[in-house]
Specification:
This protein has nine helices and six strands; from the N terminus they run E-E-E-H-E-H-E-H-H-E-H-H-H-H-H. The strands form two sheets. It has a four-stranded mixed β-sheet. Strands 5-6 form a two-stranded antiparallel ribbon.
Length: about 290
Amino acid sequence: MIRSMTAFARQETRGAWGVLTCEIRTVNHRYLEPSFRLPECLRELENDFREQLRKQLKRGKVDVSLRLHASDQAQHSFAINEPLTQALNDAAKRISRILDNPAHISALDILRWPGVMATPEQDYTEAKAAAASLFEQTINELIAARTREGERLLAILEQRLVAIHVQVADVRKRMPQLLQAQEQQLRERFEKAKIELDPERIAQEMVMLAQKSDVAEELDRLDAHVAEVRDTLASEDAVGRRLDFLMQELNREANTLSSKSIDAGLTRAAVDLKVWIEQLREQVQNIE
């Protein structure tokens, strides 16, 4: 089953440490190119996240955002450096005894002193474990979204493949009639030019015309490429690059078919083929 490279997933979890939110966005890219925005306290998880992405995704530009909103308790907790506070208070008392008219020192004045109030170092062990689990859940949601989008792409691709197959069959069916019409036009030109209708000359001209307008090989290759695209779409592996190569091959045969056109109808058919192949190629660009 094919998977799209365009998807979005979001998961959230809560704990005593606060709220964690993980968002992953992916768009098409030739290779796997991940980028991360993580809180500094969870930065050490980045290498594990990269390895997990590498195992589960093959292609795409991947933007991972992990946000931690600390709980009110964690945000507002702080510690008082009591030894420093006591030392400041003792110093203030000694200075007060020296000065004739000392100013009153308040608790707020002491709190403003550097080092008196400090935020205690947080233990993020539980938050890290929760982040690892949350990232795995978000990746699973992302893969499910890419798979659903791949199913929709598959339906679009199949419609275009059917259209190409039908057009090729129609051209193949019409070729004998086109050659007969060309032969008739050749005879009419000879007659109009009052050239004696030499059967051998006509045969030679028809052989040259048939060789010039022989598109059987191109039609066979178009059918073969369509069959190969269908087989590739049924693969469980990442097939985007192979499909992109097959689009080039399909387009090459359609161009050759157009260059050998001997009829306006055949030219229109070749143009239609190139339009459908281009539509296929545009969709294939989003396949992993």
